[in-house]
From TrEMBL:
One of its GO terms (molecular function) is beta-galactosidase activity. It catalyses: Hydrolysis of terminal non-reducing beta-D-galactose residues in beta-D-galactosides. Residues 375-483 form the Beta-galactosidase 1-like first all-beta domain. It comes from Rudaeicoccus suwonensis. Pfam families: BetaGal_ABD_1 (PF21317), BetaGal_gal-bd (PF21467), Glyco_hydro_35 (PF01301). It comes from the Bacteria. Residues 502-552 form the Beta-galactosidase galactose-binding domain. Its EC number is 3.2.1.23. It is an enzyme of class 3 (hydrolase). Keywords: Glycosidase, Hydrolase. This is Beta-galactosidase.
Amino acid sequence: MSGGTAALEVVDGQLLRHDKQHTMLSGAIHYFRVHPDYWRDRLMRLRALGLNTIDTYIAWNFHQAQADSPADFTGWRDFEEFIRIAGDIGLDVVVRPGPYICAEWDNGGFPAWATARCPGTLRTSDPRFLQLVSTWFDELIPRIAALQTGNGGPVVAVQIENEYGSFGDDQAYLRWLRDALSQRGITELMFTADGPTELMLDGGMLAGSFAAMTLGSRPDRALELLRERRADQPMLVAEFWQGWFDHWGELHHVRTARSALCTLREILEAGGSVCLYMAHGGTNFGLRSGANHDGTVLQPTVTSYDSDAPVAESGALTSKFHDYRALFEEYAAAPLPALPAEPEVLPGRVLPLQPGMPLLDSLRSASSVVESVTPRSFEDLALDAGMLLYEAEPLIPQHGCDLNVTGLHDRATVFVDDEPVGVIDTENGSLRIPGPGRRVRLSLLVENLGRINYGPLLGQGKGILGPVQLDYRAIQHWQQRALPLDRWGAPELDRIAHAALELDAVGDTFVALPGCEKGFVWVNGFLLGRYWSKGPQETLYLPAPLLRTGINTLSVLELGRLGTVVALREAASLGEAQEYVEQLPSPTVSGAGGAAGPH
């Protein structure tokens, strides 16, 4: 299953590391969800938890959001430095390069430009798709190969794709990926990982490669399925779902330490190895939150990716951390590191929020016009994330009419002569427009709430993908304004609401927008993320490295009702909690809150 130079090998049904029996105690942490100034701190916390390994995805769209730009591996995107830090601390590293990662990350890690070029061929052996992946892998994989243990680095294993058995059964695609990794220098253990059902395992396992599993409970049942297929292979739970993520408009998902600890002990007592998903969740900064689709409606993921992990979003050590540490001490070859100090937090305070220009005026002044006869999509305008402002001047009859929008992705705030008249948030929605009996300026501000990251709708486009009609008559001749909020700077931010924060010393804090309805927050020009009064998330985590001594500026783009203050709080508030319950996903559904759709 691996070459003789690999750090990890399977011999006589046992996992060995350099010829010695080994239990992998791993935890997932994603460099793209943690500020780089905190990489070392968070990794040291996971080492203190008792882990000997960490696991990270590589998010293609984090490195190459635009098709005409070269892949970026600097600064926050320097995953090689992240891996080197892990090695310095004494941690092995498992890398999951995709190209598909799910991870509740926008578009499952694919750049929007890449999925737009390959409609209907994603995650298959179609040559058009493989050519894009090949070009990306030429850039990526040699960087991972150079960090393998055989080259003096900490990388001990590399995943082939990600839970492919939940998506398809194209074994030629999986073989191509394995060959692509090998040809570019991967010599360590390569493995697949799939959910604990026959359908998932049989679709995702690859002959000649180690088969790991992903699960939240019943490891005995999963091991039985594995033994039926790989009698000579030890169990590796590549994702143990001991927490969960949240969607806007639902409850905050948690899993009690007692429940998780019971399953974790079962895995270890059965001789298995395990990776906690997540060990430290971090934050979906900016516009990188993905979305699920339950077969009826879109389910956008919140900004926080705390995931009820043992190391909280802010780095705080939870009760789950201490319970896990006590268990992991039983498997430790040496005393565990001392517990790290709790993060420093700023005292709470309330800041006055100063209004900016009217919403549509600020958006028009921050953008340029693209004209077309029919509505254009985000992809047509090379817009990865953010919003699109559509405007036309239709004649509204005296008695009024219904505004019908077909193929809306995802949410449109509707204005008539710059006055808001309602919101459409369904794919094929309608809204009654009162009749002035004249031409009006009709504006539809369409927000991309997050690209679908799992299931058959992966790669779906954004914007208005069908006709816009008044009753049955199509509106034609549009002006579109692309609003790439994640690329806004001072000229655009100076026009919107803002609050000033003066500091003598920096620390972490948690931002709340009481009185606001829905929008976005920037800190010193960095897009922190979305807020939404529908919850569950009530505060946004603001790490200290984004602040400075002196004056800091918090900029707020509100889409509905603007409040009068920004509140900085001393603790996170992620909403009313709901206990996580594992359910295997329906094959026709792309993941549901509280259910065990793959990561």
